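Q: Study each token:
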Amino acid sequence: MTVKSQNFFSPASHGFVRIACVTPKVHIADPQANLAEHLSLAKRADEAGADVVLFPELSLTGYALDDLFLQQTLQEAAKTALEDLITASRNMRPVIVCGVPMIIEGALYNLAAIIHQGECLGLVPKTYLPNYREFYEKRWFSSGHDLNENIYFAGKYIVVAANQIFVARGEDAFTIGVEICEDMWSPATPSTGLALSGAHIILNLSASPVTVGKSRVRKRICEATSERLMCAYAFSASGPGESTTDLAWDGQSLIYEMGMLLAEGERFASNTLTFADIDVDRIAQERLRTATFADARLFNKADAEAFTSFDYTPHDLTDFHRHVARVPYVPADPERLDEDCYEAFNIQVHGLMQRLSTSNTQNVVIGISGGLDSTHALIVACKAFDRLGIPRATIHGDTMPGFGTSTGSRNDAMKLMKALGISAEVLDIRPAAKRMLMDIGHPYSQGEKVYDVNFENVQAGLRTDFLFRLAGEKKGFVVGTGDLSELALGWCTYGVGDHMSHYNVNCGAPKTLIQHLIRWAAKKEFDAKTGRILQSVLEREISPELVPIEAGVIQRTEDKVGPYELQDFNLYYITRYGLKPSKVAFLSWQAWQGKYSLPEIRKWLELFLYRFFTISQFKRSAVPNGPKLISGGALSPRGDWRAPSDGNAKIWLDELKANVPDM
């Protein structure tokens, strides 16, 4: 029975399973010496909170033994060492997976033994036996492809079959499948059937002698397998101590999760442990939302030979063997960031080019505030016009100062429009806003300093109204500027305000990505003068500039809706993977501790949940067209996200309050 940890700060409380890939020093044909290495390393892994300990292929004997495998003395010594390991595991918490040769029904098999707390849960035979170049495995072993036996071993009947799933009781997503070395290299891998049968974690016990460049190939295969099968894939290869008669060994350890490298061990070293915390709930959620996975299981009639359950007691440690990116929409690697910015920018440009071509117009209207979003929409429009050979003068930029417009933003707006060579106009909305406020009887029109939501919406609505009327006058259309983060938080004026346009190039871009897109475009797409103006825009405080500046204090958007870097983090994990709020808070704590306290993280996540689930969906249910930029990163009802407009956040808020401490 599973005993759940109640410690918020322990990853085991949030569905993380800790894997340890182990590289023992190999003692050739000496199972008792190898057993001693196994026990020492398994104990270290247990103390470090490992839930699964993965040893290499034939780890109890060594792999490079050749005809020694056919010696009865070795066979019996290996069997005895395995029995001793099973007995010694009685007081250890993790599942231990090791390699051993064993005779089953008169044939010798290369097996993985799955051991837990004094029991052998099952034996998994190697399916594909390499028999080419330096490999001669068919000389000694039989393939386990058709093997499905129940044998009495170590005090109980156990299954010997390739397609087995090992399941932790009470943790539906903690499910293990095993394949051995060459199985991974086959065109039809056992791991495919294992994943389709329900294994979220695939373990590979490997020997895999090293040659120049082979480590890169292993990484590519593990990465692709974990992504294609939507699983975690752990790989542990033989290291120092194996015979170097004709080969060499590097002991490579790799742990991937759905295409992401979580951990890589030191190569050419012995007695090493490589840890990673696997998010099995995230894997389960991804499979759930991907209908292709269910179809593949149905079409391929995937069904394991046996499901064996085991008791699971989570650790209570608070260390975390996993890097959590602070800004999930923005890769930390400079090369990858450059590639992502290139792709995102060009998706936006080509989306607008297509809309210009199909609408048969050469005029667009954009409201230019001097802020991030309108600046980015403008530079996208400039590149779209350039590539279509349309003069930039038919881009009509209108800056529309209101009651809170700052000198800095207005100056940047004018400088940018001039530098880019578009048609620029100033349209002061304050007279019209004063008239409307007076007509509706707003206190501001009577001289009162009432700066409420309606005061702001009058200005936002007038700006959009003017833009639409200007578009009609120019026989063109309005390019929208609102971004993904604002749409998630409902930070836009519905219908008559910045919520609406004819085509919105920024609808798939979160705020944290837009900042990098502008920075990238300043360096890659525009001249130095324009680049300096773009840098000035980036340095300014994010503000709607709708409330009059008093005592030099400008209205700050993030005071109302929270730091965008936190809210983009919340948006990513809530919508992309459907994770529980408490788990999102835990991940946010891991990423942002040192900058934000847990109470701050909880406060802004609570606000996000309320705004996202309760008050903003009706805006997302009626949004203009615009291009999706990032995986799982669109809120259009025609794309990634569909939800009732009259929903509420109660169950999400309850889960957050019940499971995240407010200390």
Q: What stands out?
A: The longest strand covers residues 95-104.
